[in-house]
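Sanity check

After download, print the first record. It should look like this:
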Amino acid sequence: MKAGTKKWATFAVASGMIVGMVASGALASETAELQTQVDQAKSILADFQKIPEKGIPNGILRNCKGLAFLTVTRAGLIISGSGGSGVVVAKNDDGTWTGPSFIGTGGAGFGFQIGAQVSEFVMVLNTPEAVNAFSKGSNVSLGAQVSAAAGPVGRSLGAEVMPQAAIYTYSRAQGLFGGISLDGTVIATRKEANRDYYGTAVSAESILTGKVAAPAGADALRGALAKSTAAADAE
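Expected structure tokens:
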């Protein structure tokens, strides 16, 4: 092999290694960010459970079919907008919880409390139809495709009352908590995020029906969910 050809071959190999290292680093960074969002869902659940008199009613948690968590950030003063990311999980028939399917949203429709820059949202999926809406892997329009309403508050309120909507929505911002209407909000499945977190292309339907094993990174969230619903069952 001529010296020039050998140099180009060495350069090509080195370049390929560098590209591979960069791609690997980017994937690791993306996976770490997704893990942060899973951990954030656990934190949101804990924050909502700390509210003594105005928490999500135990009866609603006991009977829910799934939960969705979103952290939404408002940006801009004169021209404002909002964007959010989070996860949705479903309860299996045996009472355990599935792994997370990643979701996101943007635009208006969140009814930010005055001065709030970051808001946390919990959506209680009261019916199998609500879980199915998130399982299709497409956009979910609250109030249009699936009924949604501001959720009732009070830890022991309406323990066995039939839900009035397929989804109950709650918000927390700057220490204020309550049910909030999110009619018109569109929530999308983040297919690429699911692929990156699970290490292969998986559908939201496979995740939310328990056909796909949850990654180890989701164990803490699933454990917190099991503990929370077990506490509601004990009331």
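If your output differs, re-run the checksum step. Summary of this record's structure: Residues 46-234 form one domain.
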